[in-house]
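The protein record filed below.
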Amino acid sequence: MGIALEARDDAQLIRLEGSIDINCAAELKGVLVSTLGAGRKTGVTLEDVTYLDVTAIQLLRAAEREAGNCGAAFTFEGQLAAEVLTDLTLAGFDKSCFAEAANSEG
């Protein structure tokens, strides 16, 4: 499990890896709150995620909505496993969130 924050000139990138579940929910929430508070574009990469539980998906969904309310961009970047993409789509993420992401299975 891993959560890392990378600052860029125009955005912030949250890198998630491993199993993202209830055990790291508080850390994920803290990182999301701090990035959204900065009012800059927030990118999330899930390339190395092996599992996203409902808690992680709910936190990401809440962050996407909050970013929209603040007029900030929230996107997924890099390759997304088909299962992760399906889970996020079923959770109601706006298709614009996936503009910078690609499905790793085609």
